[in-house]
Each structure stands twice: as structure tokens, then as C-alpha cells.
């Protein structure tokens, strides 16, 4: 009795405060796009000689030893990344008492700010096992936090809102947003499109500095030329690479210390192992989008009812509600904070995370009929780099042979190889590498359980912003004397049970010969033409290849 009176009073208060949008939001139309264009003059006439970069008087500049933290850190003390980059303000979930109770930012799938993934093999860390040392790395590294594309959910929702506000007067039906939604009355769309955000730049340069600190000692084995790194021409890929290199070598020096190859990323017929969908595209590719939609129609029903109860003359659809979760993540990694995040409960954030698992699983990994074919080219290049055998490149794939057969653009004499790419390509590569512990089918009516004993695809762990797959080459002495490889994804060592010839090993080690042999078999078995150009049925699969 008392409670309902109290609620009624609150409701009255709220409704007297909430004015129609056209009266309250005088300066802006809710949902409209806003952006800053700061009018810095490109030539202000100031005398450049006052600001010359190349000046003397730098003081002493001796360099120290190349750091080798991967070798020198004490066992058990690996520097895992546990928090998002400092400028991210962690939001509180709607039903959490504090931000510490539940870390919303770690549940954003491909929009998760970079952090280390939880360990899978309990005895293994990225530090080499006893009596082993790391003598080379092959890395594929994702770009940092970016804006959504202009056609993605967030912009779609903003346009819908803007349109509704503009037409409300004609319809004589004033839109009102009450209670938790009041902020929407003067919310505008503030995001750019597709390029890195400032936080995304930090993720890359932090990662560059971390790789230098862990693996810098490997540089002294690259003697014949400056180390060569690879990325694509796309703005966020290019900028991710140069931010990383600035972190790795220093902003002032990186161009004196490294070469950067940019493989063309463009619609058309450009072969590119770092963006294979340019030449391997079929309608059947995107199975995950359907799975995601089925799932959010399930887990967001309560949120839909709740939000619509706080809106007058505006109908949220289930697609809109999912878009609001996307907006939370994108605004946070672009602007540092988002009011949308606290609209959702802990369970709704767990649901959102799983939606990203379904998307990546079905679009880019074991659920996609194209995944293995798309990852093939990079795996061939990996085999070439590990074995030195040029025959690794022969099979037809997305390789640009002009670049791949040239030591100036794909060298095999480097102890450090780092390529920059997209989340979907990292997912393709893990599928081609046959990491079958990630292949567990995912239902769309409940969250598939996950534990070190029951592994599956978890996007937040595998392809967050700045994610990296490191294939370590190791040399071991003593009982297990010999050459080895293993795969470390965002600081978690993975079992290699899907690579034929690799034995169970608590450190994730596989002997070099078995690893190389396993890769050869993997490459042989991919039907590139069948998957990319064949008559592929549009359906969900289980092994990353078409099922005829
Ligand atoms: C291969 O790369 C070169 C150098 O960027 C480019 O000129 C050529 O068009 C590319 N070829 C294909 C098929 O992508
Ligand atoms: C590009 O890829 C296609 C398809 O695999 C292949 O036939 C062609 O030779 C490649 N071109 C170059 C320059 O690598
Ligand atoms: C992938 O792994 C599965 C077992 O997990 C195995 O049966 C299959 O032969 C592997 N495929 C290749 C190409 O190695």
C-alpha cells in the first residue's frame, strides 16, 4: 500500500519535470549528428624556424640494453592487462551496487577495450616454460578502438530519433522521455566514422611499448635490413600500425628504425591476407548476424518493456534496444563515458557479450562456411615464415603474390613479424589454425556455459580492440630439448589439440616439426575455390567450411 503511493508520487514528480522534447531541447534536435571541426589554419604564417624539430642540445642520449621481459620477468609475474586504458570511465550496471561489482567494459565483445584474456592452461603463462627461451614471434594484431561505421546501429538509432522528433509536431504527439531516459531529450550523435578514437590510439601505442619491453631483445637478430612490418592502407589500420610503431620505437625514431608495408584494402580485386573478404566474399558468409538477432530478441524483452514504459509517443523496437547497448560501448571508447550503459542490468550485459560471441562465431569463425578459406592466406604466410619453404605460398588463396614472393615485402629472416588486421580476420585465422576447442556450437536461446573445462568461442577474450595472436617460437634445453611453437592469444596460452601431430602439453608447446607438419596439412585440406567461388549454401556450419 505504502509502496504504491510512494511510486505514484515519484511518477507524478517525474512527469511534471519531463517536458516535451521540443520545449526542453531548445538548442538541439535529439538524435541529430554533431561534430567539431576545429578551424586550425594550415598555414598561420608563423616562422617555422622558431619551431624546428631538428635541433641539438639534447643532452646525453645513450640507449640501454634491449629489454627482454618475456625472459627476465620472474615466473608467475607476467604483466597482464586487467583494466581498460585510463581515460575509460567504467560505467555501473543498472542493478549493480558499484562499478567494482561488475565490470561492464569487459562484456563488449569486439568493442571491449583491450585487456588480457583469462588463462586456459592453468600451468602456462606467456613467459617461457622452465629451460625454454623465446627466439622469435609471429604476430597478427588488431586495430584499436574505433568509431562505428556510418551505416551501423548507433547512427541508425540516432536517425530514427531525429526523424521522430522532427515529425512529432505535425503528428501532434509530443515525445517524452522520462526517468532513466531523460538524458535522451538533448542527446545528439557525436561519433565519427570508422577511424581510431583517441583511446584506440593509446591501445596501440601501449601495445607497441609492451611488445618492445617483452621482446625487444629479438631485434638484434634482424641484421640485414630494418625490420619490416605489415598493415593495410585503410585509415584505422595504417594509424594503428604507426601508433604501435611509435610505442615500439619512439615517435621521433620509428621511420629510421622500421619499414611499413601497406597492402591495399579496397573493394575490388585486391588480394590481401590481412583483409581476405575483398576476394573471398559470398552471401552465405554472415551466419552470425541471424544468430545474434535471434538471441537479442530473447534476452532484451524485459529491457524493451522497461524502456518503452519510460517513453511517450516513441516506440523502441528490439533492434533499437540492442543499438542502445552498442551506443554505450562506442560512446565509452570514443568519448570516455556513456549515459546509455547504466540503462542495462548485469544479465543484459552478459547477454550482450554472448550476442558478440554468436556474431563472431557465425560470421567469421567455425559457424561460417568461408572462415577457413579466408584465414588460409595468412596461415600460408605463417608457414613460409616458420619453415622458409616458398612452396607454402603456392596454393591459390588471398595472397598477393607480387608482395609475398618479394623479400622486401614479406621477409623470412626476421625474428619479429607483426601484421595489423581486423577482428574478423583474427577470427578467420584461429579457425584455419583449427583451434577446435573454440568450435563448440552456440545455442541462441541460452548462454552456452564457459569454463576452462568447457571452452568455446568468447569474443571479448579473443578479439577485443588491440587483440593479438602471438605465435611464439621457442628453444628448450634439458628433457624436452628442441624447437617448439605455441599460440598465445591476448596473453592466454591455448591448447593445440586441433593441429594434427601436436601432443597434449601443459605449457601449450608443440614441436616445430609437428607444428609445421600440422600447418601443411591444414593448408592442403582447405578448399579455397569451393568456399570462395563455389555454390555455397546459405546455412550455419560447424567447422568453418561449407557443408555440401
Ligand atoms: C598486389 O600488390 C601490389 C602492390 O601494392 C598492387 O599494385 C597490386 O595491384 C596487387 N595485386 C592484387 C591482385 O591485389
Ligand atoms: C589474387 O588471387 C587470385 C585468387 O586466388 C589469384 O588467382 C591471383 O593470381 C592473385 N593475384 C596476385 C597478384 O597475387
Ligand atoms: C582439426 O581438428 C580436428 C579435431 O579437433 C581433426 O579431426 C581434424 O583432422 C583437424 N583438421 C585439420 C585440417 O587438421
From TrEMBL:
Residues 1-18 form the signal peptide. One of its GO terms (molecular function) is acid phosphatase activity. Pfam families: His_Phos_2. Keywords: Hydrolase, Signal. InterPro entries: Acid_Pase_AS, His_Pase_clade-2, His_PPase_superfam. This is 3-phytase. It comes from Wallemia hederae.
Amino acid at each position: 500500500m505504502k509502496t504504491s503511493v510512494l511510486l505514484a508520487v515519484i511518477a507524478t514528480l517525474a512527469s511534471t519535470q519531463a517536458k516535451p522534447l521540443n520545449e526542453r531541447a531548445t538548442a538541439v534536435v535529439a538524435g541529430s549528428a554533431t561534430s567539431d571541426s576545429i578551424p586550425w589554419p594550415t598555414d598561420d604564417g608563423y616562422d617555422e624556424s622558431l619551431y624546428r624539430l631538428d635541433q641539438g642540445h639534447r643532452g646525453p642520449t645513450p640507449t640501454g640494453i634491449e629489454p627482454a621481459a618475456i625472459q627476465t620477468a620472474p615466473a608467475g609475474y607476467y604483466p597482464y592487462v586487467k583494466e581498460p586504458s585510463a581515460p575509460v570511465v567504467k560505467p555501473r550496471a543498472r542493478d549493480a551496487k558499484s562499478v567494482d561489482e561488475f565490470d561492464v567494459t569487459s562484456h563488449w565483445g569486439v568493442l571491449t577495450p583491450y585487456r588480457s584474456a583469462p588463462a586456459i592452461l592453468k600451468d602456462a603463462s606467456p613467459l617461457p616454460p622452465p629451460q625454454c627461451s623465446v627466439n622469435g614471434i609471429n604476430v597478427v594484431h588488431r586495430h584499436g578502438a574505433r568509431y562505428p561505421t556510418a551505416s551501423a546501429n548507433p547512427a541508425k538509432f540516432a536517425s530514427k530519433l531525429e526523424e521522430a522528433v522532427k515529425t512529432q509536431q505535425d503528428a501532434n504527439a509530443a515525445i517524452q522521455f522520462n526517468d532513466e531516459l531523460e538524458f535522451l531529450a538533448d542527446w545528439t550523435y557525436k561519433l565519427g566514422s570508422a577511424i581510431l578514437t583517441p583511446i584506440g590510439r593509446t591501445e596501440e601505442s601501449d601495445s607497441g611499448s609492451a611488445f618492445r619491453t617483452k621482446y625487444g631483445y629479438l631485434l638484434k637478430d634482424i641484421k640485414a635490413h630494418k625490420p619490416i612490418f605489415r598493415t593495410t592502407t585503410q585509415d584505422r589500420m595504417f594509424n594503428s600500425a604507426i601508433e604501435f610503431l611509435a610505442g615500439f620505437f619512439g615517435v621521433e625514431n620509428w621511420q629510421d628504425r622500421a619499414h611499413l608495408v601497406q597492402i591495399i584494402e579496397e573493394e575490388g580485386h585486391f588480394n590481401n591476407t590481412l583483409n581476405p573478404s575483398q576476394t573471398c566474399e559470398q552471401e552465405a558468409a554472415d551466419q552470425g548476424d541471424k544468430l545474434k538477432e535471434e538471441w537479442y530478441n530473447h534476452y532484451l524483452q524485459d529491457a524493451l518493456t522497461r524502456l518503452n514504459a519510460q517513453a511517450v509517443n516513441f516506440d523502441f523496437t528490439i533492434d533499437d534496444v540492442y543499438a542502445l547497448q552498442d551506443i554505450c560501448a562506442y560512446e565509452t571508447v570514443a568519448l570516455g563515458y556513456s549515459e546509455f550503459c547504466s540503462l542495462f542490468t548485469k544479465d543484459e550485459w552478459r547477454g550482450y557479450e554472448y550476442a558478440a560471441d554468436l556474431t563472431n562465431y557465425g560470421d567469421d569463425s567455425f559457424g561460417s562456411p568461408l572462415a577457413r578459406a579466408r584465414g588460409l592466406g595468412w596461415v600460408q604466410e605463417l608457414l613460409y615464415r616458420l619453415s622458409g619453404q616458398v612452396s607454402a605460398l603456392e596454393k591459390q588463396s588471398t595472397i598477393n603474390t607480387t608482395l609475398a614472393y618479394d623479400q622486401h615485402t614479406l621477409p623470412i629472416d626476421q625474428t619479429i613479424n607483426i601484421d595489423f588486421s581486423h577482428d574478423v580476420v583474427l577470427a578467420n585465422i584461429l579457425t584455419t589454425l583449427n583451434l577446435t576447442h573454440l568450435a563448440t556450437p552456440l545455442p541462441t536461446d541460452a548462454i552456452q556455459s564457459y569454463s576452462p573445462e568447457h571452452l568455446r568461442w568468447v569474443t571479448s577474450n579473443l578479439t577485443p580492440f588491440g587483440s593479438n595472436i602471438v605465435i611464439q617460437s621457442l628453444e628448450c634445453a634439458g628433457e624436452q630439448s628442441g624447437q617448439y611453437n605455441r599460440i598465445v592469444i591476448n596473453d592466454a596460452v591455448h591448447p593445440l589439440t586441433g593441429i594434427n601431430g601436436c601432443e597434449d602439453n601443459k605449457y601449450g608447446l608443440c614441436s616445430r616439426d609437428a607444428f609445421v607438419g600440422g600447418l601443411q596439412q591444414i593448408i592442403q585440406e582447405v578448399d579455397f575455390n569451393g568456399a570462395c567461388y563455389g555454390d555455397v549454401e546459405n546455412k550455419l556450419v560447424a567447422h568453418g567450411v561449407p557443408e555440401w
